[in-house]
Amino acid sequence: MSGLLIQGLINGLILGAIYGLIGVGLNVVFGVLRVVNFAHGEFLVLGAYFAYFLMEQAGVNPVAALPLAFLVFFAAGYALYYVLIPRLSRSDDPELSSLLLMFGVSIMLGALMLLVFDADARTLPFSIEPVFLKFGPVLIPSVRLLALAIALATIGALAWFLYRTQVGKALRAIIMNRDAVRIVGINAERLSAVAFGLGIGLAGVTGVLVALVFPSFSPFMGNDYTLIGFIVIVLGGLGHPVGALVGALLFGVTEQVSVVFFNPSIATILGFALMVGMIFARPTGLFGQRVLR
């Protein structure tokens, strides 16, 4: 196996883990609330600006900014739930209404970031020593390995939360059957607010990692990350957080390995072709289940 191919595989796994965080955040919100959060990418970019602001104004290390980003964005998402989401339940088509509502929030957040931060792309001036690690013919930036470790640790912590805590088990239950959760006396409204806050909190954390891994970010990039999130949850299955991670790794490896053999445009086409092929072969995704309506 050539060094370039190994490099592509490693880059694909690193980006796939970050894409997985994007998809997991989207999937938690959709699975619990059936809300298509079209503003997820904008919250992610806000997370990148949050880390940039803390580093420039207060000298806070981006790694130290990660828990702060989660807490701040979780609180914002928890409060935003009560402002936006409960009214959707009175709509004739809540899922379509949520898409339109969150698309409006997406445009609003993008315009707000443009107003506050201007159109200039920003870079997070952060590095660790050594800058690169060499494994045989493979050269990997140390920051990317750090981002991979943080992404995997975050996904592991989320899995522990969903499968080992009472609140997490209740969230999984509400994904399976919302009416049954209400029957046993669980406060579905408060649980839904926690799910929305969790999704936005994960977006903030992912934004910090994106600022570490990618060379720059700007107010115009939110839609790109939202699109990536939708691709990976289509691959993994709507409403299935673990499926989102698997779909993201598949998408990231396909994209990065394709770059080794073709130009970036062809690699992008192959990534989208993978999504289209999944829709034709298994519309519910790798881990999704068919729902009877």
Percent helix among the residues?
over 70%
Overall pLDDT level = 86
Whole-number radius of gyration?
Answer: 19 Å
Taken in chain order, the helices and strands follow as HHHHEEHHHHHHH
Largest sheet: 2 strands, antiparallel
Beta-strand segment tally: 2
Tally of helical segments: 11
- End-to-end separation in angstroms reads 48 Å
Basic shape: globular
Low-pLDDT parts are: none
How large is the share of residues in beta strands? under 5%
Provide the spatial order of strands within the biggest beta sheet.
1-2
Q: Structural class, from secondary structure content?
A: mainly alpha
Top keywords for this entry?
293 residues; mainly alpha; two-stranded antiparallel ribbon; 2 strands; globular
Task: Note down, in words, how this protein is organized.
- This protein has 293 residues and is mainly α.
- It has eleven helices and two strands; from the N terminus they run H-H-H-H-E-E-H-H-H-H-H-H-H.
- Strands 1-2 form a two-stranded antiparallel ribbon.
- The longest helix has 31 residues, at 3-33.
- The relative contact order is 0.21.
- The mean pLDDT is 86.
What are the SSEs and their pairings?
Elements: H1 3-33, H2 40-58, H3 62-84, H4 94-117, E1 132-135, E2 138-141, H5 142-164, H6 166-176, H7 178-183, H8 188-213, H9 222-236, H10 241-261, H11 264-281
Antiparallel strand pairs: 1-2
Helix pairs in contact: 1-5, 1-8, 1-9, 1-10, 2-3, 2-4, 2-8, 2-9, 3-8, 5-6, 5-8, 6-8, 9-10, 9-11, 10-11
